[in-house]
Amino acid sequence: MADPVSIDALTAELAEQAYLADRGLATVLALSLALSKPVLLEGEAGVGKTEAAKALALVTGGRLIRLQCYEGIDVAHALYDWNHARQLLYIRTLEASAALDPGRTLHDLFGREFLERRPLLEAIEHTDPVPPVLLIDEIDRADDEFEAFLLELLSDFQVTIPEIGTVRAASRPRVVLTSNRTRDLHDALKRRCLYHWIGHPDTEREIAIVRARVPGVPERLAVQAAAFVASLRELDLAKVPGVAETIDWIQALVALGESELDAGVVDSTLGSVLKHHEDIELVRDGHLSRLVAQAREG
Amino acid sequence: MPAPGDAVLERMVGFGRVLREAGLEVGPGRLQDALRGLEVVGLAHREDVFHALRCTLVARHDDLDAFDAAFAAYWERAGRTPAPEIGLEVPRFEPDSAPAPSAAEGEGGGDDGGEELTLLLAASPDERLRRRDFADMTAAELGRLRRLMERLPKAVPMRRSRRLRAARAGDALDARRTLRRAMRTDGLPFDPAYRSRKRVPRKLVFLCDVSGSMEPYARAMVMFLQAVIASGRHVEAFAFGTRITRLTPHLRKLDPARALAATGGLMPDWGGGTRIGESLRHYNDTWGRRGLTRGATVVVVSDGWERGDLRELDTELGRIARQAHRLIWVNPLKGRDGFAPLAGGMRIALRHSDEFVEGHNLVALEALADVISR
Questions:
Q1: Within 10 A of A124 (CB to CB), how many other CB atoms are there?
Q2: How confident is the model at residue B102 (pLDDT cuts 50, 70, 90)?
Q3: What is the three-class DSSP state of B334?
Q4: Which of A200, A278, B98, B337 is the most exposed place for a label (fewest CB within 10 A)?
Q5: What is the pLDDT of residues A50-77, one digit of tens each?
Q6: Distance CA A38, CA A33 (A)
Q7: Is B86 left (phi over 0), alpha (psi -120 to 50) or beta?
Q8: What element of type H or E holds A16?
Q9: Which candidate, B126, B113, B123, B124, places its Cα nearest to that of B152?
Q10: Rg of chain B's alpha carbons, rounded to an integer?
Q11: Chain B positions in Cβ-Cβ contact with residue A183 (cut-off 8 Å)
Q12: Which of 1-60 (B) contact A at CB < 8 A?
């Protein structure tokens, strides 16, 4: 049952989709494909957890189905709901045309055409030739009850809708869960998953990522900006910039037509990298010209 | 499916044992995943083996370091023992605290025989104990304290969830149920159903000073935290002296003596100096940054004697106060006679805190539980 998946081949295919995974991440993704197990990716914001799922979808050729979690998310938001407005409208129409037959109507009302599919049902009911990639994003924001529900779903990939019956996945979707680790997830849920922690990339990899993500970025700018962000991460910041911020920033610099860093440009675009007032103050007041000089020297 | 060689299987079972000793939860299911993972990646490259085992055998970030060390020691014979020995001497309770009281035990029953006389003369010994300053308690009294702690009112702050639940009268019409009921009345919604916001526990974060000046209170606080943590998954507890240490998993241990032993082993600064600002910064940079503080009720237990930089305390406490729903400061010394919040750190604490309460005896902790639940 374990199809061998070449880690090198997967790394190369991900790179074609402009996602540069290190050996550890590539291994986990390869294993999840081979073993049909969900992957739990943890890491700070902006290190590319969500992007990993998107890239995996592109590589496998499956559709990406995304469920964004939030506090208080429930089955009606995640799995299915009935389209009440349509149901009411349907009753009224039948009434007007005097075609109301209570028994039949009730049956029709809870038929599939009144069912609103949410991401989880979408992923289970899929008829795609290639299984979709189900991204359950920021699971740590959802509450315990929802986690328990997910656990059940992830173990047998089937749900029962009282009015319709049991829906079972024809082929299991690939599942990627992400978490910012604001709280510990249930051990039972973790036990179902392969686990990987994504850290900030080293400078070399970050330059490569920037090149892949921002085509046509001047070489010197990519190198200097990556070095600058790396040195920012050494500082004592409230929110350390992730790769996402580096990419945003370089896109801003490219849009402004810059080909290398200088203190003035950095000062005026710092808001793309640092998102806290205190952090921007800290860098402006104490470190900016020194860090820019360092980044330029390489 | 080619079966893994017996040699590999045997080595893996041994590795599982090493990991369990290092504190990881490695059951047969995980080992099986790991073996299947090895089949996929092969045994040719060390790095692939490493990552395959790591993602199948580790389930939490905190265990990554322990895994790396164990992997190096076991597979590469680096000559290190993977399980770090926790050898710190930790204060223990007197033996009379050891047997856990049964849940059915009646109020005031089962006390020491020696207390009977005072029972006749004064209020119940429990009552006296409730008002006794933790710092003046003997080890035996601390042991009895644990039983009283179990009867503390629940300290659970609540918030309104986005989630709705059925209610007689509520904030929003429940279209689903209204329609269902309408079917009984020929499609006419005579009997509307409502939903209202559900109340769910709010995140609760404890930051406890366990440095020298707080030491007499630290043990009682550990017991208090245990009682609170037992109430649900929404609670996180940290201890600090010169740096911050997460206590939550250790406090879940049922036996307080063992919980205390574990926390003592974690805390090199148990009884050392206080650098509150620096510790809070460490908390903000790790747990706070990931969003634990946001919307939480944060309780800081400290006397405010800052030996570090007062400005840092100001900044970091400010960060917490801005993100937290409520900041409660507990100072056990507040209950002592002649206390005035003059310590520099305490003035800053007062500026940022929403509530300022005492915590020197059980009555004060009961009040604290109320304040938290409010």
A1: 23
A2: very low
A3: helix
A4: B337
A5: 999 999 999 999 999 999 998 888 888 8
A6: 9
A7: beta
A8: helix A7-16
A9: B126
A10: 26
A11: 203, 233, 236, 292
A12: 1, 25, 27, 29-30, 33, 36-37, 39-42, 47-48, 51-52, 54-56, 58-60
What does the alpha-carbon distance between residue A242 and residue B307 come to, in Å, rounded to a whole number? Answer: 34
User: Does CATH place domain B204-373 in 3.40.50.300?
Assistant: no
User: Which among B163, B176, B285 has the least Cβ separation from residue A84?
Assistant: B176
pLDDT at A67: 96
Quick one: which H or E segment has residue B194?
strand B194-201
User: B99-108 burial by CB neighbour count: b if 16+ within 10 A, else e?
Assistant: eeeeeeeeee
Please provide the DSSP assignment of B353-367 as one string. Answer: -SEEEE-SSHHHHHH
Q: Which residues contact B174 (CB under 8 A, 6 or more apart)?
A: B164, B166, B192, B193, B194, B195
In angstroms, how far apart are the furthest CA atoms of chain A?
83
Cα A23 to Cα A40: distance, rounded to the nearest angstrom: 16
* pLDDT attached to residue B273: 57
Q: pLDDT tens digits, residue range B160-188?
A: 776 667 776 666 778 888 888 877 777 77
Helix, strand or coil, per DSSP, at residue A171 = coil
Instruction: Please report the pLDDT score of residue B206 as a whole number.
Output: 93
Q: Which tens digit of pLDDT belongs to each residue from A99-156? A: 777 777 778 888 888 999 999 999 999 988 999 999 999 998 888 788 888 988 888 8
Looking at residue B347, its pLDDT comes to 82
Distance from CA of A100 to the nearest CA of B (A): 10
| CA A45, chain centre distance (Å) | 11
* ipTM value > 0.95: no
- DSSP structure class, residue A202: P
Helix (H) or strand (E) holding A115: strand A115-117
